[in-house]
């Protein structure tokens, strides 16, 4: 993973001022578990060592979701809300098309399909033990050793566990409702600590009506908490390249709505990619 | 779209009429906003931008008129004097396939709920970052007619806003972050979603001014 980290830092240094990350303190037991998992996951993703990550997702238009109700019922309806685990590495394909300007084939899209074992159904017509295919728009370019992503969510890895809001594409295949608005880590101690920064009031107001100018003051409070939180957690734990693509208010509501608090799973993602830094960190600051 | 969403949309449209009529003088709350734009160079003349509309990007919702309207009021032209960005022509490619232009708009069958997208290439023809130097770019519009809304007028309003939004990206504007100002560059897919406006707003104009 070093290569990815280095290139991300390079991109950062070239484009923006770097930002500091603090490592959360760990108990001995946590540390051992982490080291164990690191070894395990390292083997799984060794094939994904890329020299460069091309995050093309900042230029896509999609619907934004602010409440669980929105996610379930508005625009693209959610067909399934599930907790589960990827049972194999996702298959990725780059799509090429002839381009007149360059007089050669260029990449025009990227597709990844991952097989996901449902452990628990929170919403919709499925059952534990079902396997579904989850679609995301990214792929590995082995010719140039790049990861090209049109999706705000990080790649799907074998063993990763997530809460997913999924919209059907037919044939037992699903895309994430609202991209990064629809995939969440299972809460663990690190994430819970960060959640504590947000006051209940600011979370409530934020999700009720983000358009209401009257709520600006509380919205400002929420944003301040958000900035504090983002100093304490790596975007990769949240499964996004860009920290600002993670909506804490919605996450808090989801945990509450589906009573997810009690699950003791952890998302192994953070064990490995913990130092990947958002490439758009300093935007609009 | 749900009933209360529709209500919101109607309210929003009413507010919008007021906003648009005041566009030159509107004092939109500039809460927590500074600038939202990307670095890197562009390959076209930004005061003489020529946009080609491919046949694949034209259907009953995505009409040629919807695209060509971008040179009129509510678009990116005439925001500043002298102009910092200016779209000089929108070309109907099925009618004039060999017309020279700087960027093509094509229809695209997106998997995964994407409405529109700008894809930029570096000098080698490789997909590149929003923040990098661009040598070429393509705007892609979702070619599904039904995804744009439940009524004809809704579809037009939403599709137009996405097109104007993608052209904003072409001018190196980013999505505002932590900011509730009405802007065509807000992340929301549809008009009214996350304070996305139907037309170019003061906030967008300010960002053009800051970038260029
Ligand atoms: Zn955008
Ligand atoms: Zn702003």
Overall description:
The complex is a heterodimer of chains A (285) and B (212). Chain A has 285 residues and is an alpha+beta fold. Chain A is 31% helix and 26% strand. In chain A, strand 9 (161-170) and strand 10 (173-176) form a beta hairpin. The radius of gyration of chain A is 19 Å and the shape is globular. The model of chain A is unreliable at 1-31, 37-48 and 268-285 (pLDDT under 50). Chain B has 212 residues and is an alpha/beta fold. Chain B has a single domain, classed as 3-Layer(aba) Sandwich (Collagenase (Catalytic Domain)), CATH 3.40.390.10. Chain B is globular and about 35 Å long. Mean pLDDT of chain B is 85; it is low at 1-7 and 14-32. The chains are: A alpha+beta (285), B alpha/beta (212). At the A-B interface, strand 2, strand 5 and helix 6 of A face strand 4 and helix 3 of B. The site of one zinc ion (ZN) has 3 residues of chain B, from helix 3.
Spatial order of the strands in the main sheet of chain B?
2-1-3-5-4
Radius of gyration of chain B: 16 Å
Please indicate the count of domains of chain B: 1
The count of β-strands of chain A is 11
Question: What's the helix count of chain B?
Answer: 4
The CATH homologous superfamily of chain B: Collagenase (Catalytic Domain)
Low-confidence stretches of chain A: 1-31, 37-48, 268-285
Mean pLDDT across the residues of chain A is 73
Give the low-pLDDT segments of chain B.
1-7, 14-32
Question: Which key phrases capture this entry?
Answer:
heterodimer; A: 285 residues; alpha+beta; 5-stranded mixed beta barrel; 26% strand; globular; disordered C terminus; B: Collagenase (Catalytic Domain); 5-stranded mixed sheet; 4 helices; 5 strands; 14% strand; disordered N terminus
Question: Secondary-structure map with pairings?
Answer:
The complex is a heterodimer of chains A (285) and B (212).
Chain A: H1 2-15, H2 28-45, E1 52-55, E2 60-61, H3 68-73, E3 80-86, E4 91-99, E5 104-124, E6 131-136, E7 138-141, E8 146-149, E9 161-170, E10 173-176, E11 183-184, H4 189-195, H5 200-208, H6 216-232, H7 235-238, H8 248-257, H9 269-272
Helix pairs in contact in A: 5-6, 5-8
Chain B: H1 3-21, E1 49-53, H2 64-68, E2 87-92, E3 103-108, E4 116-121, E5 136-142, H3 152-170, H4 202-211
Parallel strand pairs in B: 1-2, 1-3, 3-5
Antiparallel strand pairs in B: 4-5
The structure holds zinc ion (2 copies).
């Amino acid at each position: 993973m070093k290569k990815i980290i280095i290139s991300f830092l390079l991109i950062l240094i070239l484009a923006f001022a770097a930002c500091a990350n603090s490592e959360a303190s760990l108990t001995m037991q946590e540390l051992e578990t982490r080291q164990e998992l690191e070894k395990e996951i390292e083997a799984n993703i060794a094939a994904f060592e890329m020299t460069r990550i091309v995050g093309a997702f900042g230029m896509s238009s999609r619907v934004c979701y602010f409440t669980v109700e929105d996610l379930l019922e508005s625009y693209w309806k959610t067909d399934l809300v599930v907790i589960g685990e990827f049972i194999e590495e996702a298959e990725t394909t780059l799509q090429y098309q002839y381009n007149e300007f360059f007089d050669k084939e260029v990449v025009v899209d990227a597709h990844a399909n991952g097989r996901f074992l449902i452990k628990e159904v929170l919403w919709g017509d499925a059952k534990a033990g079902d396997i579904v295919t989850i679609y995301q728009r990214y792929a590995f370019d082995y010719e140039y050793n790049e990861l090209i992503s049109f999706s705000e969510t990080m790649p799907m890895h074998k063993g990763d566990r997530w809460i997913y809001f999924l919209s059907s594409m037919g044939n037992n295949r699903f895309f994430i409702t609202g991209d990064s608005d629809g995939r969440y880590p299972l809460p663990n101690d690190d994430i819970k600590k960060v959640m504590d920064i947000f006051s209940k009031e600011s979370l409530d107001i934020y999700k009720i009506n983000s358009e209401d100018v009257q709520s600006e003051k509380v919205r400002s409070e929420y944003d301040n908490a958000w900035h504090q939180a983002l100093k304490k957690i790596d975007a990769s734990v949240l499964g996004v390249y860009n920290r600002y693509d993670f909506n804490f208010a919605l996450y808090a509501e989801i945990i509450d709505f589906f009573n997810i608090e009690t699950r003791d799973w952890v998302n192994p993602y953070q064990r490995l990619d913990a130092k990947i830094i958002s490439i758009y960190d300093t935007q609009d600051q | 779209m749900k009933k209360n969403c529709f209500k919101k949309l109607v309210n929003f449209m009413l507010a919008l009429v007021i906003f648009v009529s005041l566009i030159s003088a509107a004092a939109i709350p500039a809460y927590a906003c500074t600038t939202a734009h990307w670095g890197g160079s562009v390959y076209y003349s930004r005061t003489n931008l020529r946009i080609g509309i491919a046949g694949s990007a034209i259907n009953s919702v995505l009409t040629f008129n919807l695209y060509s309207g971008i040179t009129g009021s509510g678009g990116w032209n005439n925001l500043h004097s002298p102009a910092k960005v200016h779209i000089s022509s929108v070309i109907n490619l099925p009618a004039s396939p060999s017309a020279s232009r700087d960027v093509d708009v094509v229809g695209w069958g997106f998997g995964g709920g994407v409405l529109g997208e700008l894809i930029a290439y570096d000098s080698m023809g490789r997909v590149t970052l929003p923040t990098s130097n661009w040598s070429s770019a393509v705007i892609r519009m979702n070619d599904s007619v039904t995804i744009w809304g439940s009524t004809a007028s809704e579809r037009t309003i939403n599709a137009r806003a996405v097109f104007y939004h993608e052209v904003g990206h072409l001018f190196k504007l980013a999505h505002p972050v932590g900011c509730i100002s009405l802007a065509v560059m807000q992340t929301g897919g549809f008009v009214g979603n996350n304070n996305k406006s139907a037309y170019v707003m003061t906030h967008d104009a300010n960002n053009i001014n800051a970038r260029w």
